[in-house]
Amino acid sequence: MDFKFEIAKLLADAAGISPEDAVAAVEVPANKAMGDYAFPCFRLAKTFRKAPPLIAQELIAKLEQPAFLSKMEVVGAYVNFFLDKGVYAEQILRRVLSEKENYGKSDIGKGKTIVIDYSSPNIAKPFHVGHLRSTVIGNAIYKIYEELGYHCVGINHLGDWGTQFGKLIVAYKNWGSKEAVERDGIQELMRIYVKFHDEAEHASALEDEARLWFVKMQDGDEEALSLWKWFYDISIKEFERVYNMLGVKFDAYTGESFYNDKMAPVVEELKQKQLLKESEGAMIVDLEDKNMPPCLIIRKDGGTLYATRDITAALYRKKTYNFDKCVYLTALDQNLHFAQWFEVIHKMGYDWYQNLIHVPFGLVSLDSGKLSTRHGNVVLMEELLNQAISETKKIIEEKNPDLADKENVAKQVGIGAVIFNDLYNTRIKDVVFSWERMLNFDGETGPYVQYTHTRACSILRRAEELPTADAQIDFSTLSDEVSLDVCKLLEAFPAKISDAADKLEPSVVTRHLVAIAQAFNKFYHDNPILSSEPATRQARLAVVLAVENVLKEGLRLLGIDAPEQM
Ligand code: ARG
Q1: Domain residues for 410?
Q2: Cα(375)–Cα(369) distance, integer angstroms
Q3: Which residue has the least CA distance to atom 11 on ligand 1?
Q4: Domain check: are 140 and 231 in the same one?
């Protein structure tokens, strides 16, 4: 039953307005003393030619109190409605208990496809914490859309092509060795890559040499391509280790190199549509009418660019997946890049350019400012995740040394803490890494929500009989405010998921989970559960079971495990 709608229907009959107008007018008061719903009568003053408080009085006289309300009263120009806590709790709890892990799912996305371009690290450069955000936010968006019935296509648009490979080849030939690369993998590739930049500062011929190697790669030169492939394989192996730790998967690893043989026809199309212009030997699409710098399509030396590949990839994806939406997760500093090439797609005459959405996010910082590959002060993802796990293990050793399966729980909690920290604030905000804050079991953190979940599990484990969706339960025993608060938050869960999807903002879910956990802990503190008398106990256990269910499902949507003990 939709209480708001039921109340609106009563009001519509009594006031002689349309049900739609009534639904739109019913409010949820911020102050609980004003009821669970309220109907302001100001707008009716014109029609009835009476003072709003008087209208409120007349309205309430006409209303017959339905069973799901415990009270109706007039305060000033408002009619306030108070839900019967038991009836309300019953309807929401029975629903969660019967739908179980499907509670929150919907099919509004049925038949629609969303392509999600996320993670997309650059090969041969280390997978650093900057890419963590893209990975984690993209993964959550994937799961949230899937929950709503969308067909999701997760794509890792690896940076596996471009001049940096020319640089890497030159670096390898000058300062690298097969043994070292085989031994140290990506670390060694990064070392020689950084070395290239240091050396190139006073030897500009190196840059020219690197460009030549990249052109060779483009022309299919065997030596260039086999070196490239070698670097590629080494990098992918390391990325996959990190993805496994994070529990992240992709439907396609179509990186930039995938578009090598697909760019020429696109460049030709741009030419045909008279969008290409020559500028200082390069080919560009002019965007002056949009107040943007030109979009570079072909370099002076014939090389293609990041944007050329993105344009080609968008056309390919539209053809292959016929997406309704294609979203790109990168840091804020790529705003201009996306705005530019989206505009190129627009100028090509494709109206689906409107369904290309850049989803930017803020930076990640430790204490030492922005993280970058070029200068070598990067923190590798794997190191970071391992540190999260070992920090968590220390806490477990201290708080619960007898816990079974400590290794695994430390992984779930440590990695969960990193993911949660990343998804807690609106994505545009910068994320700061502070172990202390992230792992605080009492803060607004992953471990806090996970811990609350284990608390619910522990009560359920100790209960003799668990409530079921259709069991005889006296819900009128849930007559306190705190129980009602928990039920309201549970009821809001599905709406929060669709809100998160609309805004492409997983933090909506993250924050809601914290709110549920906080309300539940208050409920747990105020209400004895297992020791209360049977009627009350079963009703309270229904709350515990529903909360356990929603926290677990909510964490899953964020890509976080929910251990049963920690
Ligand atoms: N490889 C890029 C980077 O690390 C991100 C790619 C994002 N996706 C895209 N289609 N441009 O900055």
Answers
A1: 389-557
A2: 12
A3: 310
A4: yes
Of the pLDDT bands very low, low, confident and very high (cuts 50, 70, 90), residue 190 is: confident
SS3 42: helix
Q: How confident is the model over 376-431, as pLDDT tens digits?
A: 444 578 888 998 999 999 999 999 999 999 999 999 999 999 999 999 999 999 88
Give the pLDDT confidence score for residue 228 in this predicted structure: 95
Is pTM beyond 0.85? Reply is: yes
For residue range 346-371, list pLDDT tens digits in order.
Answer: 999 999 999 999 999 998 876 554 44
Domain annotation covers residue 403: yes
Is residue 536 in contact with ligand 1, taking CB distance under 6 Å? no
Ligand 1: does its nearest atom lie under 6 Å from the Cβ of 117? yes
In this prediction, residue 375 carries a pLDDT of 43
Predicted confidence at residue 383, as pLDDT, reads: 82
Pair 144, 558: CB distance under 8 Å: no
Protein residue with least CA distance to atom 4, ligand 1: 121
Which two structure tokens, joined as six digits, stand for 410? 């430390």
CA distance 234 to 222: 18
Q: Which residues are catalytic?
A: 125, 128, 131
Q: Is 160 in the pocket of ligand 1 (CB under 6 A)?
A: no
Identify whether residues 330 and 460 lie together within a single domain.
Answer: no
Q: What is the rounded average pLDDT of the residues 524-543? A: 96
More confident site: 177 or 435 = 177
Q: How far is CA 406 from CA 58, 412, 462, 565, in A?
A: 65, 10, 22, 10
Residues 6+ away with beta carbon under 8 Å from 525: none
| Domain assignment present for 362 | yes
Closest CA relative to residue 445, chosen from 371, 453, 384 = 453
78 DSSP 8-state letter: E
Ligand 1 atom having least distance to the Cα of 125: 4
Query: Do 331 and 423 reside in the same domain of the chain?
Result: no
pLDDT of residue 371: 46
Long-range contacts of 462-471 (CB under 8 A, 24+ apart): 462/530, 463/530, 463/537, 463/541, 465/538, 466/541, 466/545, 467/97, 467/538, 467/539, 467/541, 467/542, 467/545, 468/97, 469/94, 469/97, 469/98, 470/94, 470/98, 471/538
Listed in sequence order, the DSSP H helices in 51-177 are: 52-62, 85-99, 129-147, 163-175
Instruction: State both tokens at 196.
Output: 């290239």
| Shared-domain flag, residues 544 and 430 | yes
CB 327 within 8 A of CB 116: yes
DSSP helix/strand/coil, 336: helix
Q: Cα 418–419–421 angle (5° rounding)? A: 65
Average pLDDT, the chain: 93
Lowest mean per-residue pLDDT among 25-39, 116-130, 194-208, 268-282: 116-130
pLDDT digits (tens, 9 = 90+) for 418-473: 999 999 999 999 888 788 888 888 899 999 999 999 999 999 999 999 999 999 99
Question: Which of 83, 101, 131 finishes a domain?
Answer: 83
Nearest atom in ligand 1 to 159's CA = 1
- Separation of alpha carbons 435 and 448, rounded Å: 14
